[in-house]
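Thread: Newbie trying to understand structure tokens

Hi all, I'm a second-year student working on a class project, and my supervisor (Dr. K.) asked me to get a predicted structure for one chain before our next meeting. I've only ever worked with sequences, so writing a 3D structure as a token string is new to me. If someone could post the tokens and maybe explain what I'm looking at, I'd be very grateful. Here's the chain:
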Amino acid sequence: MRRSFDALSACVRDQLHSDPMGGSLFLFVNGRRDRLKAIWWDTNGYCILYKRLEEGTFRIPSMLHASDTSVEIEARELAKILEGIALPRSKQKTIA
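---
Reply by user tm_fold:
Sure, no problem. This is what the structure looks like when written as tokens:
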């Protein structure tokens, strides 16, 4: 969770093969799932949201296939993750 703007945007490009300036929001969660960073491009610069839970863990959707590198979620699903609500498996979608 030490990465900042440049390193996170490089991770989006190199590992997820996505455009970090393409309008999507990208979430990164630590191994214990108690810290979360989100990065997105906002017309003229990057924004980062960082949240650390004092208790409990973020309930991030699991990958449907072992080879998946990311999971696509909608805005309302992001709100549920930030509030600590688990997403049902049927709502989970993968992206290439």
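A couple of things are worth pointing out once you decode it. The mean pLDDT is 84. Residues 5-94 form one domain. Feel free to ask follow-ups in this thread.
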